[in-house]
Amino acid sequence: MLANANSVKNKKKILIVDDSALMRRVMCDIINSDERFQVVEQAFDGEAAYALLKKNQYDGVVLDVNMPKINGIQLLRILQKDKIRVRIMMASTDTREGASVTMEALDLGAIDFIEKPANIVYLKGDEFKKKFLDILQAVVTSRQTNISSLPVIPRQKQEENTKKLVSLVRKSAPVVGGQKLVALACSTGGPKALQNVIPRLPAELAAPVLIVQHMPKGFTQSLAERLDSLSPMKVKEAAEGDVLENGTIYISMGGKHMNVVTKAGKSTITYTDEPPREGVKPCANYMYESLKTSNYSQIVCVVLTGMGADGTKGIVNLETAKKIHVIAQDEETSTVYGMPKAIAATGLVNQVVALDDVAQEIIMNVGVR
User: Has 310 been annotated as catalytic?
Assistant: First the structure.
């Protein structure tokens, strides 16, 4: 009896917030089927959830967006205003509007999200269940909450720092020649981390930037638009046939694997629709491995926050064919220290740096035009 009591005590306490009785039931069944978690409360709108969050502590919250009285976005704002710390996983729709709202939720402190399937059969299937539980585990074990512990540097100050660094790089000894490329991988906590790194990269960066962020189809377009609005560099969702150009950032489309091939002597984006690899699609390993036969002689590989080990096999493979420089985010500033930890364990990492220093190291290693 005591062992059973301890087992219940050690389970992560979860609050579900959703106005759909069906969704609450399905999510409750999924969560309670896993010995790591237990649903201890349910709320049908943001107002009821806020009342619970003011008086109780939970290890994780699964939060719907569209609800009566107080919706998910409004609740996130209230929690930040009242400094109520919690680890939040959003349950999002796959519509264009839903993707945009999800980006806003991540801005407001949600750690990750699950895409709600419209198909009830898929909703109750093993694939959705595994994906749901993997994301929930990453959220409840995250180092971060909705109230960031990292210092916020004003945008104007960021721009001033970038200009100073560009000037310094131009005045210093030139970076060794050759075609250079930046290839970046991230997962849980990635959208927020990218908002720290990408706006600090100058339009004059002497390399294109490729990004694989684990996201479903439809969400990467909203991410690209958000980052483009914040950044000196052009940021776009990579399209089939895009020719890589310096000063442009290409984010892999969700739901496909991004590769770089050489066509008519030019480095060109192509997509494949192969099954998920490492449990994800897009998978960074595809991107890194495709670069083995590219025109680029020097590749800066950047691995930011994320669960799992995606990117590691690809970088290990790439190192056999290209000169690489590997930058990994440190544990302290990673939302989930999975992907950076995995690449660090290979011994290939040249620099382990705090999130605030990633952009600077990229600039120093590829130079400016």
Answer: yes
